Amino acid sequence: MDPFTALLIAAAVAVALYMAAARNPLAKCRRCGGKGVLRSQLLPWRYRACPSCGRSGEIRGRFGRKT
């Protein structure tokens, strides 16, 4: 395989991954696990809204809008 073909395949894979990320922008918040709240370690009945997801339990993708 010549270098040009390998470069072309790598570029096609990169474009496909970029388009997949742009079309599927929502991801579950890693901090709250989709609950929208962060529990206190010391007082487990206390919680606060997750600042990463704005209490929605989902975070925006890099280039996508939250719907």
Describe this structure as you would to a colleague.
There is one protein chain. The chain is α+β, with helices and mostly antiparallel strands and 67 residues long. The chain has one domain (3-59). Helices cover 31% and strands 15% of the residues. It is built from 1 helix and 4 strands, in the order H-E-E-E-E. It has one helix at residues 3-23, and strands at residues 27-28, 37-39, 47-49, 58-59. It has a two-stranded antiparallel ribbon.
Present the secondary structure layout.
Blueprint: H1 3-23, E1 27-28, E2 37-39, E3 47-49, E4 58-59
Antiparallel strand pairs: 1-4, 2-3
Please describe the structure with a list of short key phrases separated by commas or semicolons.
67 residues, single chain, two-stranded antiparallel sheet, 15% strand, two-stranded antiparallel ribbon, alpha+beta
> Helix amount, in percent?
25-40%
Strand content: 5-15%
Largest sheet features: 2 strands, antiparallel
Give the termini distance in whole angstroms.
44 Å
Structural class category: alpha+beta
| Overall number of strands | 4
Our Rg estimate from Cα atoms comes to: 19 Å
Helix-strand pattern: HEEEE
Brief sketch in words of this structure:
With 67 residues, the protein is an alpha+beta fold.
